């Protein structure tokens, strides 16, 4: 038969084989809620079952400077030792049932020697079902952490178990060091046939495995078919004691919701282990034992580990003269003229070297462009040509850039004018080895038509005529092409100069980059 909830207690063996019982007892006559933690001391451990061997030490005593501990409804005290110091954790109303911790005197464990610290309040929805409650703390240690399992919410099917944790090297009295898991670790929906899992404790079996002891209601109670179905969940005796093995997640967190069926799942009966035998490194070689570079140049060395099945194939790289050459992941970069030794080191003390000789280079002194300025129409292309001086410079590769999206430039120097509504200036830069040259590109809208200085013209043989092209205001076409329909009668230069050759007729067509054209008919006499 379970004890009523207000009479429950815990037995602890502390230093010098001394036994104590920490239990809850009333301090107010006729008051269900006027309860506080108390302590019994066993004065004769050899006759522990004799009532005369036990002495009541009274209510737990707060530290002299603590004005809060045990001043309100409090119960369910648990005790644990850590690094030679002893602590108690208990729930107390403040204003809800919250968890507090304090350090106690190991020789007089009914006396606190630190002020109490609140480490948990019912804050999540699963802790606030029916009642706002944190209670029934129990301590479990594993993998460098201390865990506190506690009960939460009302005592019906909503009752569940939450989990606090703290690193074993942290200060137990630092509330900020305690971390609460954001979801319960055991609820009514986790194990079939078990409802309202709550107040719990931990022990060990004969093999030292952690055992979880807790109470929960059965199916009959949940279905309201038991004799106490109409009683309040706090007072009925339907919470049966249960136990199961504690399992552990990969991070060391206790798993409390595994059923017996899951423990014995068929796929878990056979365990397969892969055993790896470490194969040591017998040697390391580089693809080059010497390397010649110019300042600014680079080359990647490749390391080969022997044997090929060596367990550890990691390689570290080092230069003995980083002012001359540096190395990262096998990539050697020349910094200055001189020599440096690159060492590749593998496991088991094996290493290989490469001697690097770095020579000085001829630097670029000037970059010039074939145009310092050019005007283009939207959509027109123009190729800028860069000349690097001296021609034998080592790093003479030209990099092109534009300061505006209104004109782009490829790495071959091809400038493309983009669509604009009005004239826009863009700077194109050609840069090599720190030297640069610039061209100002004026981008204007493309012409929608073209006008010439004549439509018909009569020339005598041997005479010339200069065609003049007129574009609409604020438009541009850098490329203007001229073509004669009859070169035997009249020819035209790339700049539009027409020359009469012999008698006859010829048509000269003038075309912009965007295919707008106009014509002049020439009659040669």
Task: Output the radius of gyration.
Answer: 46 Å
Strand content: 35-45%
Spatially, the strands of the biggest sheet line up as 1-2-3-4
Question: What's the helical proportion of residues?
Answer: under 10%
Can you tell me the residue ranges where pLDDT is under 50 for at least 5 consecutive residues? 1-7
What does the main sheet amount to?
4 strands, antiparallel
Mean pLDDT: 91
The helix count comes to 2
Q: What oligomeric state do these chains adopt?
A: single chain
Write the layout of secondary structure elements.
Blueprint: E1 9-13, E2 19-26, E3 35-42, E4 54-59, E5 78-82, E6 85-93, E7 97-104, E8 117-120, E9 134-142, E10 145-152, E11 160-167, E12 179-180, E13 200-204, E14 210-216, H1 219-222, E15 240-245, E16 247-248, E17 254-255, H2 260-263, E18 283-286, E19 290-294, E20 298-300, E21 303-306, E22 316-319, E23 325-328, E24 331-334, E25 338-345, E26 351-359, E27 366-369, E28 373-377, E29 381-383, E30 386-389, E31 399-402, E32 407-409, E33 414-417, E34 424-432, E35 435-444, E36 451-452, E37 456-459, E38 464-466, E39 469-470, E40 480-484, E41 490-492, E42 497-500, E43 504-512, E44 517-524
Parallel strand pairs: 19-26, 28-35, 37-44
Antiparallel strand pairs: 1-2, 2-3, 3-4, 5-6, 6-7, 7-8, 9-10, 10-11, 11-12, 13-14, 14-15, 16-17, 18-21, 20-24, 22-25, 23-24, 25-26, 27-30, 29-33, 31-34, 32-33, 34-35, 36-39, 38-42, 40-43, 41-42, 43-44
């Amino acid at each position: 038969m379970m004890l009523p909830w207000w009479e429950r207690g815990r037995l602890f063996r502390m230093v010098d084989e001394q036994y104590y019982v920490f239990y809850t007892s009333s301090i107010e006559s006729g008051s269900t809620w006027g309860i506080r933690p108390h302590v019994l001391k066993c004065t004769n451990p050899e006759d522990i079952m004799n009532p005369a061997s036990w002495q009541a030490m009274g209510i737990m005593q707060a530290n002299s400077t603590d004005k809060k501990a045990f001043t309100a409804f409090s119960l369910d005290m648990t005790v644990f030792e850590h690094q030679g110091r002893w602590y108690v954790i208990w729930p107390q109303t403040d204003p809800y049932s919250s968890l507090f911790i304090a350090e106690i005197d190991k020789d007089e464990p009914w006396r606190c020697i630190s002020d109490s610290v609140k480490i948990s309040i019912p804050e999540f929805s699963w802790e606030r079902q029916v009642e706002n409650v944190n209670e029934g703390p129990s301590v479990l240690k594993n993998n460098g952490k201390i865990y506190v399992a506690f009960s939460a919410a009302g005592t019906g099917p909503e009752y569940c178990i939450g989990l606090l944790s703290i690193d074993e090297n942290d200060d137990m009295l630092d509330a900020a060091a305690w971390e609460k898991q954001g979801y319960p670790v055991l609820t009514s929906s986790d194990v079939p046939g078990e409802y309202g899992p709550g107040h719990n404790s931990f022990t060990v079996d004969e093999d030292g495995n952690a055992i979880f002891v807790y109470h929960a209601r059965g199916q009959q109670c949940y279905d309201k078919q038991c004799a106490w179905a109409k009683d309040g969940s706090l007072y009925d005796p339907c919470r049966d004691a249960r136990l199961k093995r504690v399992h552990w997640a990969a991070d060391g967190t206790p798993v409390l919701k595994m059923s017996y069926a899951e423990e014995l799942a068929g796929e878990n009966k056979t365990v397969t282990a892969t055993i790896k035998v470490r194969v040591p490194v017998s040697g390391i070689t580089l693809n080059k034992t010497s390397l010649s570079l110019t300042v600014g140049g680079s080359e990647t060395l490749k390391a080969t580990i022997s044997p090929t099945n060596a367990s550890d194939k990691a390689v570290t790289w080092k230069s003995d003269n980083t002012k001359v050459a540096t190395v990262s992941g096998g990539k050697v970069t020349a910094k200055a003229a001189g020599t440096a030794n690159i060492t590749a080191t593998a496991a088991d003390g094996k290493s290989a070297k490469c001697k690097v000789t770095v020579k000085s280079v001829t630097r670029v002194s000037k970059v010039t462009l074939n145009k310092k300025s050019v005007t283009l129409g939207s959509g027109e292309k123009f190729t800028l040509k860069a000349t690097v001086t001296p021609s034998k410079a080592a790093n003479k590769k030209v990099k092109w850039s534009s300061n505006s999206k209104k004109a782009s430039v490829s790495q071959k120097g091809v400038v493309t004018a983009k669509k604009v509504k009005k004239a826009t200036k863009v700077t194109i830069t050609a840069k090599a080895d720190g030297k640069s040259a610039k061209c100002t590109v004026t981008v204007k809208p493309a012409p929608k038509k073209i006008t010439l200085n004549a439509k018909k013209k009569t020339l005598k043989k041997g005479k010339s005529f200069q065609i003049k092209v007129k574009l609409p205001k604020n438009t541009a076409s850098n490329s203007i092409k001229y073509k004669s329909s009859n070169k035997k009668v009249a020819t035209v230069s790339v700049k539009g100069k027409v020359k009469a050759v012999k008698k006859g007729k010829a048509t000269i067509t003038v075309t912009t980059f965007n295919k707008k054209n106009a014509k002049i008919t020439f009659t040669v006499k």
